[in-house]
Write a structure and sequence with these properties.
With 113 residues, the chain is α+β, with helices and mostly antiparallel strands. Helix content is 42%, strand content 18%. It has three helices and two strands, in the order αααββ. The chain has a two-stranded antiparallel sheet with strand order 1-2. It is extended, with a radius of gyration of 20 Å. The termini are far apart.
Length: 113
């Protein structure tokens, strides 16, 4: 029975691995056009955002949000902030604001998304 369980877990992990690999975008060269994915450009943002921990409710998360808004607006996207509250899981009591940063690419036609 233990062997069958082990085999089932190994198959499941293999399928998850294949699924993850199939969704990774292809990395373009550093000179890729702005409309193409570039791993090096993406890494610049990750390095900037990951400098410090930024748990919910912290001043660091406010700075990360500001960075994202500035970058998205600089790319010509419309930015919307979706604010909600959540329990203060990290070092606090009560609730904290949780803010989703949404970047909208303006459409070219006056139709539904």
């Amino acid at each position: 029975m233990a062997r069958r369980t082990l085999i089932s877990w190994l198959i499941a992990l293999a399928l998850i691995g294949v699924g993850m690999l199939s969704t990774v975008p292809v990395s373009a060269d550093d000179d890729a056009q702005a409309t193409e994915f570039s791993a090096s450009r993406a890494m610049e943002h990750i390095v900037e955002i990951a400098q410090h921990p930024h748990p919910m409710g912290s001043s660091e998360i406010v700075e990360v949000r500001r960075y994202l808004v500035v970058e998205l607006e600089g790319m010509g996207l419309e930015v919307d902030l979706q604010i909600s509250t959540a329990p203060a899981f990290y070092g606090g009591t009560g609730t904290v604001d949780v803010v989703n940063v949404i970047g909208w690419i303006p459409g070219l036609k006056n139709t539904k998304a």
